[in-house]
UniProtKB/TrEMBL annotation, chains A, B, C, D:
<dbReference type="GO" id="GO:0051539">
    <property type="term" value="F:4 iron, 4 sulfur cluster binding"/>
</dbReference>
<comment type="similarity">
    <text>In the C-terminal section; belongs to the purine/pyrimidine phosphoribosyltransferase family.</text>
</comment>
<dbReference type="InterPro" id="IPR005854">
    <property type="entry name" value="PurF"/>
</dbReference>
<feature type="active site" description="Nucleophile">
    <location>
        <position position="16"/>
    </location>
</feature>
<comment type="pathway">
    <text>Purine metabolism; IMP biosynthesis via de novo pathway; N(1)-(5-phospho-D-ribosyl)glycinamide from 5-phospho-alpha-D-ribose 1-diphosphate: step 1/2.</text>
</comment>
<keyword id="KW-0408">Iron</keyword>
<dbReference type="GO" id="GO:0000287">
    <property type="term" value="F:magnesium ion binding"/>
</dbReference>
<keyword id="KW-0479">Metal-binding</keyword>
<dbReference type="Pfam" id="PF13522">
    <property type="entry name" value="GATase_6"/>
</dbReference>
<keyword id="KW-0658">Purine biosynthesis</keyword>
<dbReference type="GO" id="GO:0009113">
    <property type="term" value="P:purine nucleobase biosynthetic process"/>
</dbReference>
<keyword id="KW-0328">Glycosyltransferase</keyword>
<keyword id="KW-0315">Glutamine amidotransferase</keyword>
<dbReference type="InterPro" id="IPR029055">
    <property type="entry name" value="Ntn_hydrolases_N"/>
</dbReference>
<feature type="binding site">
    <location>
        <position position="452"/>
    </location>
    <ligand>
        <name>[4Fe-4S] cluster</name>
    </ligand>
</feature>
<dbReference type="Pfam" id="PF00156">
    <property type="entry name" value="Pribosyltran"/>
</dbReference>
<keyword id="KW-0460">Magnesium</keyword>
Amino acid sequence: MLTTHPFDDDKLREECGVFGVLGPLDAAALVALGLHALQHRGQEAAGIVSFDGRDFPSHRALGQVGDIFGSEAVMRSLKGNAAIGHVRYATTGETAVRNVQPLYAEFEFGGFALAHNGNLTNALMLRRQLVRRGCLFQSTTDTETIIHLMATARGGNVIDRLVEALRQVEGAYSLVCLGKDQVIGVRDPSGVRPLVLGMLGEHPVLASETVALDIIGAEYIRDVAPGEMVVLEAGQVQSLRPFQSAPSKFCIFEYIYFARPDSFMEGHSVYEVRKKIGAQLAIESNVDADIVIPVPDSGVPAALGYAEESGISFDLGIIRNHYVGRTFIQPTDKIRRLGVKLKHNANRAYIQGKRVILVDDSIVRGTTSVKIVEMMRDAGAKEVHMRISSPPTSHSCFYGIDTPEKEKLLAHKLSVEEMRRFIGADSLAFISLDGLYKALGHAKRDAGAQYCDACFTGDYPIPLTDFEAPRPADVHQLAERRA
Amino acid sequence: MLTTHPFDDDKLREECGVFGVLGPLDAAALVALGLHALQHRGQEAAGIVSFDGRDFPSHRALGQVGDIFGSEAVMRSLKGNAAIGHVRYATTGETAVRNVQPLYAEFEFGGFALAHNGNLTNALMLRRQLVRRGCLFQSTTDTETIIHLMATARGGNVIDRLVEALRQVEGAYSLVCLGKDQVIGVRDPSGVRPLVLGMLGEHPVLASETVALDIIGAEYIRDVAPGEMVVLEAGQVQSLRPFQSAPSKFCIFEYIYFARPDSFMEGHSVYEVRKKIGAQLAIESNVDADIVIPVPDSGVPAALGYAEESGISFDLGIIRNHYVGRTFIQPTDKIRRLGVKLKHNANRAYIQGKRVILVDDSIVRGTTSVKIVEMMRDAGAKEVHMRISSPPTSHSCFYGIDTPEKEKLLAHKLSVEEMRRFIGADSLAFISLDGLYKALGHAKRDAGAQYCDACFTGDYPIPLTDFEAPRPADVHQLAERRA
Amino acid sequence: MLTTHPFDDDKLREECGVFGVLGPLDAAALVALGLHALQHRGQEAAGIVSFDGRDFPSHRALGQVGDIFGSEAVMRSLKGNAAIGHVRYATTGETAVRNVQPLYAEFEFGGFALAHNGNLTNALMLRRQLVRRGCLFQSTTDTETIIHLMATARGGNVIDRLVEALRQVEGAYSLVCLGKDQVIGVRDPSGVRPLVLGMLGEHPVLASETVALDIIGAEYIRDVAPGEMVVLEAGQVQSLRPFQSAPSKFCIFEYIYFARPDSFMEGHSVYEVRKKIGAQLAIESNVDADIVIPVPDSGVPAALGYAEESGISFDLGIIRNHYVGRTFIQPTDKIRRLGVKLKHNANRAYIQGKRVILVDDSIVRGTTSVKIVEMMRDAGAKEVHMRISSPPTSHSCFYGIDTPEKEKLLAHKLSVEEMRRFIGADSLAFISLDGLYKALGHAKRDAGAQYCDACFTGDYPIPLTDFEAPRPADVHQLAERRA
Amino acid sequence: MLTTHPFDDDKLREECGVFGVLGPLDAAALVALGLHALQHRGQEAAGIVSFDGRDFPSHRALGQVGDIFGSEAVMRSLKGNAAIGHVRYATTGETAVRNVQPLYAEFEFGGFALAHNGNLTNALMLRRQLVRRGCLFQSTTDTETIIHLMATARGGNVIDRLVEALRQVEGAYSLVCLGKDQVIGVRDPSGVRPLVLGMLGEHPVLASETVALDIIGAEYIRDVAPGEMVVLEAGQVQSLRPFQSAPSKFCIFEYIYFARPDSFMEGHSVYEVRKKIGAQLAIESNVDADIVIPVPDSGVPAALGYAEESGISFDLGIIRNHYVGRTFIQPTDKIRRLGVKLKHNANRAYIQGKRVILVDDSIVRGTTSVKIVEMMRDAGAKEVHMRISSPPTSHSCFYGIDTPEKEKLLAHKLSVEEMRRFIGADSLAFISLDGLYKALGHAKRDAGAQYCDACFTGDYPIPLTDFEAPRPADVHQLAERRA
């Protein structure tokens, strides 16, 4: 079946998911369930901080949500009816656990926890200033900068200090914060990363995606708006607009790949958008063939849309082995080459002698595409046509997505025809940028387009202060943050 | 994507898979890969025994293949160019590791290892006789009986003793055995469980399914015939027929659910057979509806066949969370009820207001079906029609499939209409027994039918000696073997 | 044999040991060996930070030195020819690892690591001031205060900032610090905790005790003086005296129990001092008896001194089971009572019918003494006389020793005669305070005595600012630090 | 303090300890305590089997007793008021757990468990015969032979079959067995290994040493006699003498080193015997010196006896580090050489300028002796005299003690003078064989001596059938058993 996308070495990866809830008993248990539904946004570490009326018990660890929060002792320790949580990709080594979020700090006025989805683009510059003032940083995350800006703010309450801190940062952030009896959600003025508001009965909930509302039975109310701060307090949801307004720049790749297909974003069904993209792809670049085959696991909706539009029959031509751990080692070269089949196998009866259309959502380095085309040929395919439901990914993301350096992106180095030869397909086509906007209900992309599509266009909507002229001393920091 | 079927509490479970190879360097590494491809036939324990010209190094453990054989040290220890392996469901506690196969024994004439897929139905009776003669049993598996029958046989070489032992046993068995420079495959005279022969270049290979040939790049030659013994020795494949012939009784459920869809059995593509069953189901019991939805993960091919035949559009209406571990604990009742959504979520945009046809491959206890129908209703389905690509499962299997006792099978207790009410669907239909045979290319089921369909009909082709009149002292044994 | 004192629930416990070395290849490996020799000063956590010319690789973990630093991968990562290390008692939970030393901070001017043996007595007061200025604390240790004081100092180089910070703190500290190409050692002006300087060839070494010099083959040069700061740089040892001088107040309990018997302190052999204390005890309070028995494991030297002075024969009357783990659980009450014998057994042939003198070094809560006297009686002792080689421990330590609250100290609650009745001995005597000073070569204790003996006298040489009038908000902090 | 002897690479090692109890509730918990007290007889694996009136629950694992039986769940599973247990050295790999005792078998007449201390010397010969009859061996232990001999015996009850089996075996064995409501103890006719009988109230207990009685508060009644079988049943102790009588040949090394000093054997205090041996050593080979120093951990009683006899003062000149794990790895050669000090340190104040007498109990390979003499010299000893409280160990043991092959025994290769030069001492003396017998209360060793002293004399009291002319095929077996 269509699964939420598992680890694939040759995909871009969302770096984080956040969740918060105020009011119910067992708040932390609800957060654990919410994080479980957001596991596709970060599989290597997770954390929860709750507030029990006095203390802020917390638990953070490397691993998956079910393992970290599967212990009754852990869950019992996370008392209170307010809690926030975070899933992320972890770095390695000792640094790792220090970097796991939510971050927590004890200010003069009390405890405060913060979970961040996104990436700040002037954190290093701010960090240098803060260190000069005597601030000691404990982690290598950009997020800690926000905490120190709050600690050294001119005073005021939590909200005042958080606003003062955020006015100084640039970049993408969807934050969920926890203070005393207070849960706060914020999206940066461009609204790059998602954040939705739901209600579980009378209790407000914040989450990166609607699937995290579904799992706890909460109702999807609306997306938090770009630049909006929502303050959940005593069952009330207060909306603030503390920042200068900016054009909305929601990440278009959330539709293409990152979000779960059963989520809704900006009111759209992600699955439906993906089918429409597949249909548009068929309109733009159809080819005479016998079978449309999705590349597992995420290509199914686009492939179904393509098949419906083109009238070519849809079948599962690649079968995934469900039991793939990450530890299998192949001891000899000979075996290592066989090893590419550990994960997938051709459904030979449906490939042999057929002209095949493969539908995938993106090509990053191209390494997986090469192997899948080869697998089709080995299984006897007469022709192999590759169709991609995104434009060529030619630029890195600096707003919270784990992308290789630009120099490793296949589309940065090669033309489409060169890429076709590289992956060994008979034909290769990507959806056009305008086609993508069409599938999303717009006439075409234009200057005022509402999405961030920098990974296709290099058109970065928010300044890249740290990255444009990094000081030598920062390179290590940037590298580590990326690791 | 369609994955090989993961753990589902309400499915029947294949109990074992076997694999053997003679000739290549790194024989054990090839066996590890083969077992990995057979992981769906047994996920809780695995073992490999190799022959290095002098010793029979072995490694058996609880866990999945990738974890058990992912260590270089382990693989290096399994020297030699002949090896066999086994995957199985394990029992718990100290007994567990003793029961993990391949079994190994040192006979007077040398070492011998044996891996068994199936279940013997007169093992207890034989065991009582052997104990009376002074034999000491070390495991609680039926398979050990074969070893003791060989040890106490009247003499002769390995083949003579194995034949003499097997002539005394009743039940289902596909065996792969390893002697000095010899790999042996045998199927019982009814051929209940599968076993195929392949060639990796000049090296013969035996495996439960063809997918295990695919993963190592071996070619599928043919199924080992019911009652056939194949002896692989020095690159030669010798075929013996040491048993009285009997009508072929291949397990029909392998086509419906157990085998991987990308396997071939008796020359048929399993995926294709499942699509045909789905189409036949649509012919027999179609209903006016808006969408055909497969029940994850195994219902996809039948649902595609149903959709194609009926002309109703196919979509993924249930999205699986890829990151489901088994350890997630829900600390409160309230959370526990939410917990049913840990694994699946409705693709709400495609359910709301729709008349839904759900296609699943079987109903065992019915517990999952109840929850899936409820999930459809919660997501706003107007009507929910359940279609099952097998006849009602009303009898237990004694030939190597883990079935609940008859009393727990929903179809044993309830009529189809009662089952419909139990699971809460608007309609419920199973494929007919004749329809199933039709999908397999036969006119209908008749007395001479070539499949074992006892789980639907109670028509057991092999005597159930141990089970018909168990002695009180054996009940514990039978229970333990089943645990 | 006499072992360095293992875990005993009824002893005071040293809280930390420190070690540093500058110059040799494999500096971290030498630190690991040194910490291993200091393991008796802290068994629950350890850490090492090295400097490789650019970075400060580090490894800290809960557990014993041999386990933490027994991995080649870990040791390889700790590159460089300068390194410092720390052993300590750990707290539990997530806090634990954050509190493991050496602490590390990146200042504006570069990295800096610090390992602390001792305890500050005004850390909370300073912490409140720092938090008000916007400092964020990450651990609950008093030691972090020093780091923040350095970060917010008026500037200058590492030495300047460290001196400025230490001028503000009160309490006991022996520090070993690591900067770029620099190892620094400091003792507080009263010199409460030990710190010695050694040379390994041309490379200077700092350690809590001389046994850590022995293990690496280094030569013992001298004790770092109270109030002295030694700066190791490029093979040079520079001595600074940046603090106001104060009377020396070395911890007298180091001689009695904490230090290893094979260490030298202030030029004295600890073993020899203990024998002299035992001899003085015999002079003060001998009794007619048949055998002198040391209470394992630390009572041997004092018992030998006692036996030699009194002429009564010395024998091992209590045999320790070497294989005592900490995890043995006794499932029933009946067994639990038996369980006191898990660790020790009477050497019955030497007890039965004998008048026994037991020599121990201290009585804290008295729980172990009760059991040992009972064990002697059970083994048939005719009389049991207990002799203690320290004065009654009636006051808590605030300078780095883990003592129970005053209310739990047996000597705080009971007179000597009441204590005798409590432990069930026929007689009980402690060495006199003057006798203790005599054994150390002084005529008697007087106002100008050079040792801290507050645990016997309540005469605290350094102010207890945090403890005298704790604010309600601090109680939690103090408790946690103590946990 | 004197500890029961820890792991020392250069000592002979006892291979097993056994324990059994019939009657009390929590029988298994008492066995766990007893095994804990016997841990010095085997530290690498342990097992317990109990009888609960119907089943024989069991738990066996690699590790130490406290870890294996420290879990409440494990202890709860070992129900019943009869239980036996075993500690042993384990082999490595998969074989390991199969070899952990007690062995268990289900005979026609019911379950039976057996724990063995000792070693059979004709097990391989018997094994060949049994395999020829169709017996399948599961372990590589000699002990399994007894089980198969019982299974194939001519019938009769448990006692009859056990006697019939034991009449066929040669070698050393102290067995504790468990049948239905029955615990059985047996010593071989020569009584090589110890076995004592005690009473815990009305419940009889069997143990390898009296310290295992002490820990549970049981009273020592008597040693089981050589060739005696004691049957514990319903609170009765029945004594049988089923074997031909033979001269008693108790292992003399139990007195010298193996047994705990607080044990009694044949009515003697082991500690007292060791002191007498030390005194005899002083009589035979005293030398003018300043200090007598025991080699830790086992040399203390002999050193005390030596000091008392010679009038030279006794002191602890070598201090052991209590916290030595087994995992410490030294990454460089330079560090590796330092590493000899991980475990011991010279008490320099007592060595420098002194003439030292070191007292140790044996020299096996001599590797430790070399290092200890060197440590004394490094600490400034003027003279180093080594005195050994056993005669030269020149022959291997085949009766249950782990000895190196004869070729690796220093005393097999070198004369005493050559040994002195090898270890670098100024003088070296061993106790004489007659002196040893004197310390044990005999006039001298003569032909009718009651001890097995084969390791000193090569005078083996029981035939070495398997070892005298091993068939090539057995060499592997013998090696594995020894591993």
